[in-house]
Amino acid sequence: MCGTKIVTSPGAKIWVAALIQFTLATTFMLIFKFPKIMIVILGVMILVGTAISARVKLAPSLAPQKPIPHSAAYQILTVLIAIGGFAFLSILLFGTVMFMNSWDRWHRYEGQPYHRSDFVVERVYYQKYSKGGADMYARGTVEGQREWMTLVPYLQPVPRNEAELDERVTPGTSIPVYLFPALKGRLRVQVYQDVPPAEASRQAAMRTLNHGLTALAACAAAIFLLSFVRRLCDTKEEPALRSMGASV
Questions:
Q1: pLDDT at site 30
Q2: Lowest-confidence range among 57-61, 62-66, 173-177?
Q3: Would you say 226 and 81 are in contact if contact means Cβ atoms under 8 Å apart?
Q4: What's the CA gap between 46 and 151, in Å, rounded?
Q5: Got the DSSP string for 66-86?
Q6: 125 forms bridges with which residues in the sheet?
Q7: What's the pTM?
Q8: Domains along the chain with CATH numbers
Q9: How crowded is the C-beta side of 74, counted as CA atoms within 13 Å?
Q10: Phi, psi torsion values for 205, nearest 5 degrees
């Protein structure tokens, strides 16, 4: 009986729902290989939000109140607020991942010596992932040295299969690249572009940050406005509902 009371109490239900939400979100983020810091941030956000909700739910009331039926406008506003909250969380999660990727790449190449060279393809490889997508890279030579190179930035649009990749990048193809002698693996060879990798990544990080903050501010403003309007609807409905109750 004691366990039944704990499980059925409003506060316990909120924490159980939060645990389920965190478990599902964590599973999703692990499957798609989100950074671990994102899981920590998500956990903190869910913890804070659940604590606030639990405190509001457990606040003592003067008298038990019957559920109040709300108008269609009120319910529509509630749905819009929920959509806005989901959009806010999605922008925060994916925006943070994009920013961290660009930030990591920026500082990985910042200050590294490099020079312009050419990558001569010997063989290309198409590795398809079980969860969708594919990795495309090549083995070749740069200035007479054996090197490996990621081909995805060079291939636009991206080939859909190995046969198409072999057709588009044949042995002997020369690709203009940046060579970073101090780095290792495929990081050493990057496709040549007008903007070097460090500066391009810095611009991408700042662009993601600016656009992400703007989108978050817009979502927060929309949620606040919708909540305010819903509050007005609730205030207008209360006198009418009270008068109906008095007449009954």
A1: 75
A2: 62-66
A3: yes
A4: 39
A5: PPPP--HHHHHHHHHHHHHHH
A6: 137
A7: 0.64
A8: 2-59+70-108+219-243 (no CATH), 115-195 (2.40.50)
A9: 12
A10: -65, -45
Mean pLDDT of 181-190: 92
- Give the tens place of pLDDT for each residue, 19-62: 887 887 777 767 766 667 667 777 777 777 777 666 656 655 44
**Residue 28 Cα distances to 21, 24, 35, 100, 245, angstroms:** 11, 6, 12, 19, 47
Please name which of 227, 225, 246, 237 lies closest in space to residue 70, comparing C-alpha atoms: 237
Q: For residues 82, 88, 94 and 97, what is the CA-based torsion angle, rounded to 10 degrees? A: -140
**CA–CA dist 163, 141 (Å, integer):** 22
Rg (CA), the chain: 27
Q: What amino acid is encoded at 109 in this protein?
A: Y
Separation between Cα atoms, residue 172 and residue 245, nearest integer Å: 85
Q: Where are the alpha helices (DSSP H) in 131-196?
A: 162-168
As a whole number of angstroms, the distance between CA 32 and CA 100 comes to 15
